[in-house]
Description:
The protein has helices at 3-27, 29-32, 74-85, 87-92, 121-128, 154-162, 165-173, and strands spanning 44-46, 52-54, 63-68, 96-101, 115-117, 133-138, 144-148. By secondary structure, the protein is an alpha/beta fold.
Amino acid sequence: MSRFSICFLAVGFCFLSIAAPAQTSKSSPSARVPAVPRPAPEFLWSGVNGKVRRLRDVRGHPVVLIFAENPNQKMFIKQIKELNRRAKQLVARYTLFFVAFTKETGPVARTDIPFVILLDPGSVADAYRVGDFGIAVISTDGNVDYATDRVITGQKIVDVIVNSYQSQVQARRL
């Protein structure tokens, strides 16, 4: 090969090595990741003083939101047992607990966890697209980090809160 060909290849290689990092920084996941990819639908409840509060009023706290037909539903009672097993860990993380009874309301028994019963459970269930039973874990930034229609362990809820979307984004930046 001639000197010209070797020079041409060297210049091409240098250009590619300079262009590649610039291109990857534009397409890196952290550059494209929205602040909240799955924003939690808003819901309302009445505070102790009668003032209506919203989900956005409690940003900075993880939220566990449970949907059930009534307080005596078997899946709801199983979920309460699971939450009771990890209550101390969840309370230590300043977790707030809400329940939306879609058919028949009543007090939440068999637990010391303070649940807030939502005002309009039907519309909240529609917004979260749940049926007879569901649970959503909402992170401190208002992202739905986990949602299911099955009973999950209390440890799984703790794990989701600890490994929230926000903390995963921070870990990727390090």
